[in-house]
Design a protein that fits this description.
Two copies of one chain form a homodimer. Chain A is built from 15 helices and no strands. By secondary structure, chain A is mainly α. Among the domains of chain A are: about 120 residues, no CATH class; about 40 residues, no CATH class.
Chain lengths: ~475, ~475
């Protein structure tokens, strides 16, 4: 309770400094202090407590550190238990999965569609315009569908396959943007009696640049900061090593352990398993976001001297799901606004059908990409995306509130592992299609759970219900 | 990724508003938007990424919510496991332990010393002054030692006993402050040829008021806000119910489980057990702090219309241990400054011996209070307090840094459960005194652990060491 001194040891904050001025608890440096008229060294003054709402300003910065420490402590235990139970599951050679020749060939094959698009564009003036349009769309759709079908048909390595598919989606969107913007610029040039011809240089720069919307010019930076690029590359490699460790050591055993209660329907064990997967799953998601949307796109931008680096906004402060979907992925969002939403609304569509149309396109791509690692169309990724439409409406009333932010996080944190769990279950059992025997079983189990809940209401204690559930195989 | 709209859904922050003004991603309300000269609806602009250090201002408020959610999620699993394993251990009737008649009588007996102190004070003018001083000190020391010895001798209920002892410490400090300040005021009055006599009303108000330093007058508030008092009382009751649940359901089983590895020396299980206790132990500590230093003292202050409510400063932002000890408990700190530190330094003591002297007094009281629930003097509470002196010196260089704040939290979070664990071990085995057979055993185990660590350095993998430890009973 002791050691008085003038020097403040706290992180200096405005509140802190203010308080130190008021403070009479710290005796001044001079040694011969006079007693005040009440016979005390210290003086009393009317002051509110710091936690009180009457206190003018306050800094709780230290409590953020405490949250981080508590989180690490809680999970350090899980790390120790995990090492005891499973030993080390990681194996650096797994990285070779990403370099399988079939996937690498498919990734390189994407350049083909880019050059074809440029070739088709060159036909303008020689070929009837609607035919060119049809050729462009065929080429663009092929740039996604051909790699997708090849991965599905040859069952190439799924981890590499999913990367190829993300690149294929990017190629599709870039090619579409390229010919749509070229059309507009050609029409505009024509109205001024000029001619517009895109240069191959412009197309290739657009393919390399971290944007999905074509433009003949972009804001550029003066030079490439190579030291900065190298540091970002190291961070990128380190983060993906971390993601691999978390996925291999925590998510995969967690998934496998939860398949058993999912099979015999132990409701509380399912919830426990879901919570056990949710934390590492979220860690992967947030690290993946940072490494792709901050590091990877910034590395690309630096290498191409691309100036506009707003790849995401502050979606972590979202209080509505709508704000999250508009801000977490600005390259795709901008593409959707540029080539779907704005053309539709300028043609007289109302806002909400245009938004729903955008969600349908997103949902289809999500389902097609997720289908690869699990070799299954469960339509859960599609359904999860489409569920966002009513959820966005429901959360609109929470705009600006902390509750809205918490609900947003919970929907992200619990929705994702649930979907992953259900895909993993059907994958492990070799079940295919949007509705399987396992789904019927799960619904029947939930059907059993409702009577258990109602017996709880009839005055049984919680522990009795819990024991009852355990005894009856719940 | 979609649903564009003008309305921002994020918690409004300065950064956010600024960004919305810059933002060209949200299309304006008007339906017929013109294309820009690059043929796009959207415009590109040179902008840094939000996570980049180049970005002017940033709000990470949403990530604080995510930390809280992750923490609750990680611990919800533990709640489920705990209910499965132990069922409900809590029992509302345990509260009757606090009301045992022997402890209640001891608590009321403290008033005796207060009135005796007033009586001794009245002797001034009739009895030789040093005799009065001796009587005062005897009375003050008796106010702590007599209840302490009674609790020890009769082995009254420990949970009630510790509350009585805290009140007894308070009584001791208040009585000492009363006669020391009266002496000063009497000397001052004498120098002005006046007389000073404390009134019983003043003493009784001082006993009720939330301060340990006597003064004939204090800043007062205008009136008692009864609604406010009732809300604070409800909070106080709710928090202590929570503390009881956490202690009974999590800390006690955790302690008991860790006694076995502590006995047979499974090092990693000891660490795991310590981490398992650390989180609920910290929760109890932080809730206890809030309920006593914010709620209880504010309730007292409101009821006595006491104006000076600075009972703690922002110790949670501490970056040095010194700042923490000077700020977490201002009533005791002020008493120490007023009646120990300032008198010593004005008599020519240097700062640091005076500080160490204060720590010795604190350490003695801590040891005496902790001795009651565990019926043992292990001198760990004393040692833990005295260890603060070198730690304060060591952490001085970290002043103002986040590292300092993290080290401060870790020393609080890990030091406390370690001490509780060691007291609990000897209590469970019926061992007494500052050094027991169990201590010898623990030191021998640590002795064994060092070769294991050095073999780790000689190139064994971590898992081999872990397995080796498990096999050899570690």
């Amino acid at each position: 309770m002791c050691q008085p001194s003038d020097e403040s040891g706290a992180v200096a904050t405005q509140s802190q400094e203010k308080q130190n001025q008021q403070s009479s608890g710290n005796p001044p440096e001079e040694m011969h202090v006079k007693l005040n008229e009440d016979g005390n060294f210290l003086s009393f003054a009317p002051r509110p407590s710091l936690f009180s709402s009457e206190h003018p300003s306050n800094s709780y910065r230290g409590f953020v550190n405490v949250l981080i420490i508590l989180l690490l402590m809680s999970n350090l235990r899980i790390v120790i238990q995990n090492l005891y139970k499973y030993g080390l599951l990681i194996n650096p050679w797994h990285i070779t999965h990403l370099g399988k020749s079939d996937n690498v060939c498919l990734a390189f094959s994407l350049w083909f569609y880019v050059f074809v698009a440029y070739g088709i564009e060159k036909l303008h003036g020689y070929v009837y315009s609607p035919i060119i349009k049809a050729l462009h769309w065929t080429n663009a759709i092929a740039s996604f569908v051909v790699p997708w079908y090849a991965i599905w048909y040859f069952r190439t390595d799924p981890s590499g396959g999913i990367i190829v598919l993300v690149f294929a989606t990017t190629a599709f969107m870039k090619i579409v943007s390229f010919f749509l913007v070229c059309d507009r610029l050609r029409a505009e040039a024509k109205s001024k009696d000029k001619k517009f011809k895109p240069k191959l240089r412009q197309l290739l720069y657009f393919i390399a640049a971290p944007t999905l919307v074509f433009s003949p010019r972009y804001p550029r930076t003066a030079k490439i900061r190579w030291g900065w690029v190298l540091r970002r590359i190291w961070e990128f490699i380190g983060i993906w090593a971390g993601i691999y460790v978390v996925a291999r050591q925590y998510v995969m055993p967690g998934l496998m352990n939860t398949l058993v209660p999912l099979e015999n329907g132990s409701f509380f064990l399912i919830v426990e398993g879901l919570l056990k997967i949710a934390v590492p799953n979220f860690l992967i998601w947030i690290l993946g976001f940072y490494s792709i949307f901050h590091l990877y796109l910034n590395i690309l931008a630096e290498l191409t001297r691309f100036g506009d680096r707003q790849f995401y906004k502050d979606w972590w402060n979202s209080t509505t799901l709508g704000y999250f979907w508009r801000t977490w992925n600005l390259p795709v969002h901008s593409w959707m606004v540029e080539h779907v939403y704005m053309p539709l609304t300028t043609r007289g569509w109302r806002k909400s059908p245009a938004s729903i149309f955008i969600f349908i396109i997103s949902a289809i791509f999500h389902e097609l990409i997720v289908s690869i690692p699990f070799w299954n169309f469960k339509l859960l990724a599609f359904g999860g995306m489409m569920l966002q439409v009513p959820l966005i409406e429901l959360t609109k009333c929470l705009k600006g509130s902390q509750t809205g932010n918490v609900i947003f996080w919970l929907s992200i944190m619990l929705g994702q592992p649930l979907i992953v769990l259900l895909y993993a279950r059907d994958y492990a059992q070799g079940l295919y299609g949007p509705w399987t025997d396992a789904d019927t079983k799960t619904v029947r189990l939930l059907h059993c759970f409702l009577p258990a809940l109602s017996s709880y209401r009839r005055g049984q204690s919680f522990v009795e219900v819990l024991n009852g559930c355990v005894e009856t195989g719940w």
